[in-house]
Design goal:
The complex is a heterodimer of chains A (about 500) and B (about 325). Chain A is an alpha+beta fold and about 500 residues long. Helix content of chain A is about 30%, strand content about 20%. In chain A, α1 runs parallel beside α5 and α11 packs antiparallel against α12. The two termini of chain B are about 15 Å apart. The chains are: A alpha+beta (about 500), B mainly alpha (about 325).
């Protein structure tokens, strides 16, 4: 693994060397015809499919967004905005949701109906589908849920949830025509329709003129798989593609210098955290968690590990998102406090392993810096690099401390799926608090928005004190386009405008 | 190469040679079996399995357990190995855990790209190395010799990925003469746009040229200085004759050995080159299968790579042996 890190480093170095040379002539490349946008994404090779409910990669989500529609989308702050759903209304208990669909049609001309929505959500909730968003719909009583008319349906929940609409905009919840089981040439209601696709190879989609929001600007959209970041950057610079997804901070300077490419950054799209397991020693001693918090120099982490792009974290998920308690003070480093907490816990010279991986470009330098900073307050921290492909399942099960990152999600979703007692292994820090669970459940069953926000803020303050989630920063999220492209903006991953190509034009 | 033929024709295949051949083939088969078991064990030791990789970061324990059962991953490892090995004996490489497609199909889909890269590289490396090696060997110490040496050693000392990035930076990004990546083309569709192959093949050639050219040069220098060369020269043979019929054939043995290593090196280099130029070949497929913990597919690739490496070494060993048996 360290070989990979070394190589990445060197790649960045070589790329940086080119940045010093003015980029002169412009290449035609194999380029794009007018009206066709070529977008480069890291891809999943032979595993890929166009089933919108089972993909877990960003490219799966981007293709699903082109071919299909969701009932709602997420604004940049992860609040919901209407898409296929025109309006919705809960009953006073928050267990019955009535949804009205806007007039829309699938690519084969059939209208999008309530039955399609019910079929889709049933399929997602069905365990045998192994759908990514399954847990969002686990609480739906499909026996009681029903279509009221062609364009109106009622979903019934087992427990009150006034944040339920967030589920309809979660990744991998795209609406498919009722009865669909085969996704080799899928029919959706999205702004582009299927033309060609083979796993691991480019996918070509064409404009769907019958889209409810009006036809897309582009005539065609082509997804080109490119695993290596340097390949994406070079392909963009040489004019082979028009859009490169997931560009590292190192490449940003290179891209901006030539004037032929533009970089769009979602300011703090991704939480960067150090996760300490509080359900096992040594961090079952809360003093040691506090010692780690006090020992970190978050400003230095931001400046060095994130190259200054992003913002300092406050041990809470969701900076800039709806329901994030923004009034808490930024934590300052207090080495004296850290040392005295260690002494008090009788843990001077405490030794632990920090799990890390190349899964995120910022982990490596963060891990080094964290062990150095904590070394200064009397802990011996050894970074241990694990394989990237199973990293997240490894850190759920093993070890006491790990680095993690999470893209933007609605705050109540994050709290429900990562911090509550019934989150299972997705509760990475092993945090169990009846008080937190009760606050979260009460918030979901509260109809009043302001009161719900209060309850969620209280719950978050509690988990901030008690859980082992040490959020040290928020990293930016970069995509790049050629200067021929317009209509792209920096939007956080999972939001409606992220990887959205129906309003983009080229040439 | 033509000069080789008379030498080979000289040796009659006796019983001793046949026995030697059989035992050499036996060793090769044993090697493949050991590689198969080793790779299976090593891959199984990697943390995580297909179920976890396929379901990704957000899956809960129940989903993972369900998929694991569905894929048969809850069976003990030895049962799975025996199932798999039984299939191999019937010529069945098994089914991919990720895609449900036959492993042989998965591999075949990626083979064309790599074959094309490898074939083109060998087509350029062989004559080029021969020409450079002979020419600098005959003029050992000359300016030509020293410049060739300087250039090939330089190329060899730059890692593949660095060389690739340098070439892309100069010829694609700055000059705009050649495409920076293969951008989604693969297999035979690559031949429709040959320009995309120039840089990947250049990188592979640059890396493999050095050892081969230097091996040829060393052989030529030695043979050229040997008594038999002086003898045939004294006998009045033309210089061209001397080189083609006497000097070159005597360098072939070691050069063939080096050629085997070149093929091994190409298989390694192709993984890096495919990644950097976004080519979907065997290297990319193998890396992908390991990432997905797709044991049957990983095994299929491992067997193929082992078979290629061992097979090429076997053929070249035998050829070199025959050459020694009948030569001089």
């Amino acid at each position: 693994m360290s070989g990979v890190i070394g190589r990445r480093r060197l790649l960045a170095g070589v790329a940086g060397a080119f940045a010093a040379v003015p980029l002169v002539s412009c290449s035609g490349g194999t380029g794009s015809s007018p009206g066709r946008l070529r977008v480069a994404f890291p891809a999943g090779g032979a595993t890929e499919s166009l089933d919108p409910h089972t993909g877990s990669l960003f490219v799966d989500q981007a293709r699903a967004k082109a071919l299909f529609d969701t009932l709602v989308g997420y604004a940049d702050d992860m609040s919901v905005v209407p898409r296929l759903a025109e309006s919705w209304q809960p009953d006073p208990t928050g267990t019955r949701w009535r949804i009205r669909l806007r007039p829309a049609q699938f690519h084969d001309g059939r209208p999008v109906t309530a039955e399609d929505v019910l079929y889709t959500y049933r399929r997602i909730a069905d365990e045998s589908t192994a759908a990514q968003a399954g847990s969002h719909f686990a609480d739906v009583d499909f026996g009681a849920s029903k279509a009221i008319s062609a364009t109106e349906l009622e979903l019934v929940l087992g427990a009150p949830n006034f944040e339920f609409p967030a589920a309809w905009g979660a990744p991998a919840t795209e609406i498919v025509p009722a009865g669909t089981t085969d996704f080799t040439a899928p029919v959706g209601s999205g702004p582009f329709r299927y033309v060609s696709f083979e796993p691991g190879k480019p996918a070509v989609f064409a404009r769907f003129d019958g889209h409810w929001s009006g036809p897309a600007t582009l005539a065609e959209l082509e997804f080109v798989p490119m695993e290596e970041e340097s390949a994406r950057v070079n392909a963009l610079l040489s004019g082979q593609v028009d859009y490169a997804h997931d560009v590292s901070a190192n490449s940003v300077r290179l891209l901006e210098q030539g004037g032929r490419a533009r970089v769009f950054s979602a300011p703090f799209g991704t939480m960067q955290a150090l996760l300490l397991k509080v359900d096992r020693p040594p961090f079952s001693d809360p003093r040691l968690v506090r010692a780690v918090r006090a020992g970190l120099d978050r400003r230095a982490l931001l400046d060095i590990a994130l190259s200054g792009q992003g913002r300092v974290g406050n041990d809470l998920f969701g900076a800039g998102l709806r329901f994030y308690p923004a009034d808490l003070p930024e934590p300052a480093r207090d080495p004296e406090l850290a040392r005295s907490l260690l002494r008090e816990a009788g843990a001077d010279g405490l030794t632990w392993e920090l799990q890390t991986s190349t899964v995120d470009p910022y982990f490596e330098s963060a891990a080094g810096l964290i062990s150095q900073q904590l070394g200064e307050v009397g802990m011996r921290v050894t970074p241990r690099v694990g394989p990237s492909e199973t990293y997240f399942s490894d850190i759920k099960k093993n070890g006491v401390a790990s680095l993690s990152r999470t893209a933007a999600l609605p705050v109540p979703t994050f709290l429900g799926q990562r911090m509550t007692s019934d989150a299972g292994s997705n509760n990475y820090t092993g945090y169990h608090s009846a008080e937190f669970d009760a606050l979260h459940a009460e918030a979901l069953s509260t109809a009043d928005d302001a009161r719900r926000a209060d309850l969620l803020a209280t719950a978050q303050r509690l988990s901030r004190e008690q859980s082992g989630m040490v959020v040290w920063g928020f990293s930016g999220w970069n995509v790049a386009t050629s200067d021929q492209v317009s209509g792209v903006r920096g939007a956080p991953p999972n939001s409606l405008d992220w990887a959205r190509f129906d309003r983009v034009s080229v040439g | 190469m033509i000069a080789l033929a008379p030498q080979l024709r000289g040796a009659a295949p006796g019983a001793r040679v046949l026995a030697g051949l059989l035992s050499r083939v036996g060793v090769a088969v044993a090697q493949i079996v050991i590689v198969a078991i080793g790779v299976f064990a090593l891959t199984a030791l990697l943390p995580g399995d297909t179920a976890e990789v396929v379901l990704g970061e957000h899956a809960d324990d129940g989903q993972v357990a369900a998929l694991r059962e569905q894929l048969g991953l809850d069976e003990p490892l030895n049962t799975r190995f025996l199932d798999w090995a039984g299939g191999i004996l019937h010529g069945d490489l098994g089914t991919s855990l990720r895609t449900g497609r036959p492993v042989a199909e998965e591999i075949a889909g990626n083979a064309a790209t790599t074959m094309l890269l490898t074939a083109l590289t060998l087509l350029i490396v062989l004559p080029l190395a021969l020409w450079l090696g002979v020419r600098s060997g005959l003029r050992a110490g000359s300016r030509f010799d020293r410049s060739v040496n300087f250039v090939v050693v330089l190329l060899n000392s730059v890692p593949e990925f660095a060389l690739a990035l340098l070439l892309v930076g100069v010829f694609s990004v700055q000059a705009g003469w050649l495409p920076a990546t293969a951008a989604g083309l693969s297999g035979w569709s690559l031949t429709a746009e040959p320009a995309v192959l120039v840089l990947p093949v250049a990188v592979l050639v640059a890396k493999q040229l050095c050892a081969l050219a230097r091996q040829v040069r060393t052989g030529v220098v030695t043979a050229n200085a040997a008594e038999f060369a002086a003898h045939v020269r004294r006998a009045g043979l033309g210089e061209r004759e001397v080189v083609l019929r006497h000097v070159l054939p005597n360098t072939i043995g070691p050069v063939l050995q080096q050629l085997a290593r070149t093929v091994d090196g190409l298989l390694g280099g192709v993984v890096v080159v495919e990644a950097l130029f976004a080519l979907q070949g065997l290297g990319a497929g193998f890396v992908e299968a390991v990432r997905a913990r797709d044991l049957p597919t990983v095994q299929g690739y491992a067997l193929l790579f082992a078979a290629i490496t061992i097979g090429v070494n076997l053929i070249i060993d035998l050829a070199a042996r025959r050459f020694r048996a009948g030569g001089r």
